[in-house]
Amino acid sequence: MLGTVFVLLRLIDRQDAVTQRYFTAITQADGAFIQLVDAETAVRGFALTGDPVTLEPYERASADDLSFRTLAEQETQSGDARLVAAAQAAADAGRRWNEEFALPVMEEVRTNGVGSVTTDEIEQGRVLFDDARAAAETYIDLLRDRRADAVDELAFWTLVGAGTVTVLVLAAVALGIALWVTLRRWILEPLDSLAADARAVSSGDLTHPVAGVGPGEIAALAGDVERMRVALVDQVQVLESSRSEIALAHELLTEQAEELRRSNRDLEQFAYVASHDLQEPLRKIASFTQLLQKRYGGQMDERADQYIAFAVDGAKRMQQLIQDLLGFSRVGRVGGEVTDVDLASALAAGVDNLSEAIAESGAQVTHDELPVVRGEEPLLVQLFQNLVGNAIKFRDPSRSPTVHVSARRVGESWELECRDNGIGIDPQYAERVFVIFQRLHAKDVYEGTGIGLSLCKKIVEFHGGRIWIEQPDGEGTSIRWTLPAADDLSS
């Protein structure tokens, strides 16, 4: 691994030397050499013609930073002593040519004119320039030699790198093959065997054993699967043994449910028939006791009048009880027409049926905007009539009764509230009041049969809702119930 890193670093260093360092140095040296030649040509031309225009190449070379002096300063950072010496020699030779020939000749021509420069001076300048050119060429040749050496080293390290990569690839392939063989022998084959056993068990063959093969972890997993298979076999046996018991229990439940439905039908039929058949003898009892009271009232002693009054009152209450029981048994049994019912109209009809009680008590019945629901209109009228009637019946003697009906949408249902300012209902009796024949007060204090709210509960549940007592934040009673919205029922 360390050898690979060393090869990679050498490869990068030689590539940088070839493509960056030596390439840049040779390019700059060639440029400086060309400027030196152009400067020498410009000086000789100026010596022959005296035309300042011919000095432009010399002036550009003097102004440009690209010179052998600059290259010599750069080479000092490379650490190559021969390159530093060669660059410095080229810079010194160029400086001597400039100081000992170029500058004096240009000054002589500017002062004394063309022809003032002697042949000896021209020959001396040529010798100086030849020295500068030779030093520059020596430096450039040395740079090219260094670049050639770097190219050779780059080629060598490239081959070494390719060989190293080849060795690494072959080693990786060999390692991969070895890993595959090891994984196949020690992991994949045991897992395949375990998977085949698990599939056999999951397909229903619980008697198929799961063999524990492979290394420790896979063998432990196979042992867990085998224990699970044994546990499943035990559970299946238990389930098989209890299946007959469950089937028998289901059959008994089915029979009991059917018996319960038949019993409910019989009870409803009995309640209807009993209440209907009792109407006629009760009417006779009530009629004759009332005639007896009218004809012989006051003719007998006070106790006889009291007995007759008891008989008349009992007959009336029995008639009312039978009528209420008959109405209770008809809910959900006598199918009426299901229509869109405007609850505001249903409330108005119920209030109209209670007009005498409302006028007598001075009650005030109000309501918010009420929705339209799907249902049997007579039952919903009966619902409002019972709720408003209860509010009037159980009013507080110290104030005039007020009843307010409101509604709000809650999800897919309408939640309605009948709120009054009566005597209220103790929270502990909130569920009891909906049980049939349950009374919270003596019959001589508040008249009634105890069927009113139970009938309301049956009507609401028949329409798919529920009814409950909500503890109000003030005086009175708050009865709330839900009815499915018309659009939900129609869909």
Global shape: elongated
Helix content: 55-70%
Instruction: Give the DSSP E fraction (strand runs of 2 or more residues).
Output: 5-15%
Return Rg in Å. Answer: 60 Å
Helical run tally:
12
The parts where pLDDT drops under 50 for at least 5 residues are 441-446
Order of helices and strands: HHHHHHHEHHEEHEEHEEH
Main sheet, how many strands, which sense, barrel? Answer: 5 strands, mixed
Subcellular location: Cell membrane
GO molecular function: phosphorelay sensor kinase activity
GO cellular component, one term: plasma membrane
Main location: membrane
How would you explain this protein's 3D organization?
The protein has 491 residues and is α+β, with helices and mostly antiparallel strands. The longest helix is centred in the first third of the chain and has 84 residues. It is elongated, with a radius of gyration of 60 Å. About 1% of the residues have low confidence. Among the domains are: 171 residues; 157 residues, Histidine kinase-like ATPase, C-terminal domain (Heat Shock Protein 90). The strands form 2 sheets. A 5-stranded mixed beta sheet has the order 2-4-5-7-6. Strands 1-3 form a two-stranded antiparallel ribbon. It starts with a helix and ends with a helix.
